[in-house]
Amino acid sequence: MAELPQASPREASAPAIPDEEGEAWLARRERGSRLGIRALLVVTRVLGRRGARALLRLIMLYFVLFAGDARRASRAFHARVGRRSSFWTAYRHLLRFAEVALDRVFLVRGELDHFEFDREGTQLMRDAVAEGRGAILLGAHFGSFEAMRAAGRDSSLPINILAHNDNARMIAAFLDEVSGGQSKVRVIEVDPSDRTYILSVKQRIDEGELVAVLGDRLGLNDRFTTAEFFGAPARFPSGPYIMASVLRCPVFMVFGTYVAPRRYVLRCELLATQVELPRAAREEAIAGYAQQYAARLEHYARAAPDNWFNFYDFWRMSVDDQQAQSPTA
User: Fold this and answer.
1) Beta-bridge partners for 187
2) What CA–CA distance (Å, rounded) separates 145 from 324?
3) Which of 16, 137, 209, 286 has a Cα at 20 to 30 A from 218?
4) Considering only CA atoms, which of 246, 248, 240, 242 is closest in space to residue 133?
């Protein structure tokens, strides 16, 4: 147990990143309130999914007109993918994000008849659970992880969500409010001042359950490694790989691509049966796992760029970043 504190994604922290744009984005945490959630629930119950989607088109048109930063980020991403971009490209991109967010309400309520699910590789998760082996699910701000979780519930897969502080409480409040208090999903809160959360993760893994964590976005001051992504270096958090190496469990990459108007393609791939981080080449090993993940994320994001939901300059690297590269020691 002496090594457990090293597994903390939050504890493995890099020097503060002097990137004002990046910090501004990271500081804008996803916000939610019970009042807002209840308003959304009223809309979905009165209008249904089809009516709510129609209303969403008007709301997002207004939003995109004034969301200059998100609009520019969308256009820049499409240019990086090699697609022509315009105002309407950005509008469709942000609308897709809003549609996936709206679908979370129906997925959490268990109203799966609204959707079609295509599954590829999800038997890997079922086999792990059936054998009593826990695993880490490495997702991304791409498409819908909620679809993966909801379909997992349909398959009796015990999935837990690992999230930082305010986001964890917001997710728990959302699940509780939307499900009417019937949600069976555990949300494990990461508190940077308290390392004992890793014990909860270990317990879930030891009991043969799945723990979901996002592997594409840094929290403030998170340690990171650098991987090639769409032809340029980008930062990826090191925490998931450090945690997996300590817990000695498999890591699966999961992607839930949304295909309008109602289909979700759920993919699960093995990243590693066990993450090995030898002391003599620890940083190189972390970078290698992150590169595998980045390559698969790029594959799916290139095929469905409107499912990419990081609306900021993902590749912006400060001078300190370039000098540090992988400050994970």
Assistant:
1) 161
2) 31
3) 209
4) 248
Stretch among 70-79, 185-194, 274-283 having the lowest mean pLDDT: 185-194
Residue 238 is encoded by which pair of tokens?
Answer: 């090191």
Tokens of 35: 């009042």
Q: What is the pLDDT of residue 288?
A: 98
Burial class, 269, CB count within 10 angstroms (exposed 0-12 / middle 13-18 / buried 19+) = middle
State how beta strands 224-229 and 232-237 pair: antiparallel
User: Exposure of 26 by Cβ count < 10 A (0-12 exposed, 13-18 middle, 19+ buried)?
Assistant: middle
> Do the Cβ atoms of 138 and 240 come closer than 8 Å?
yes
pLDDT tens for each residue of 227-264: 999 999 999 999 999 999 999 999 999 999 999 999 99
- Nearest of 3, 12, 67 to residue 192 by alpha carbon: 12
- CB atoms under 10 Å from CB of 33, counted, come to 11
Provide the whole-model pTM.
0.83
What 8-state DSSP symbol labels residue 11? T
181 CB-near residues (< 8 Å, 6+ apart): none
CA–CA dist 278, 245 (Å, integer) = 10
Q: Which of 20-34, 254-268, 271-285 has the lowest mean pLDDT?
A: 20-34
Backbone angles phi, psi at 33, to 5 degrees: -135, 160
Question: Is 139 within 8 Å of 214 (Cβ atoms)?
Answer: yes
